[in-house]
Amino acid sequence: MNKAFQISILALSTLLTAPATAAEIDGKNITEAAGADNALAAEFQRIMKPITPDAPWVESFGVTTTPEIEAVGGKVYDVYRGCKPNDCPTEVYVLLYDRENNKFVSGAFIRSQFKDLTLTESAITWLGDTNTVRAGAIGKHLY
Fold first, then answer.
1. Which of 2, 29, 71, 105 makes the best surface tag, with the fewest CB within 10 Å?
2. Number of folded domains that form the chain
3. pTM for the model
């Protein structure tokens, strides 16, 4: 078996056997989860601090979805996603939450411009410790 295949099998088995988090069991999006967990709320504020001066809506989380699970480099993360209220396509964030360490480790904030329904420009601000492996995992959740 080649090494890439073995790593893929390991990542898949990790994903399939990962225990559900409280947020997933309860179906809590980041707004609800942070409302029930002050440490999670503080972590969100910490990682989003570079964004809030230009996008103050992130302080109240925006329009959010329930977390998804993502296996990245053999580790399992909760993926939280939110967007600008009443204008979701123009500003979006995606964050990876390490539940073992209770920390948002990586994320991205993307600001996009459209002409009619055509995407014409996007700018990404990477947050936390976003290496290329994590960036790839985050990228598939940005749009």
1. 2
2. 1
3. 0.78
Give the CATH number, domain containing residue 23. 3.40.1420.10
Distance of alpha carbon 42 from alpha carbon 30, whole angstroms: 12
Residues near 83 by Cβ (< 8 Å), separated by ≥ 6?
62, 63, 89, 91, 92, 93
**Domain limits for position 57:** 3-139
Is the alpha carbon torsion for 25, 89, 96, 141 positive or negative?
positive
pLDDT in tens, 67-114: 999 999 899 999 999 999 999 999 999 999 999 999 999 999 999 999
Q: What is the largest CA-CA distance in the chain?
A: 50
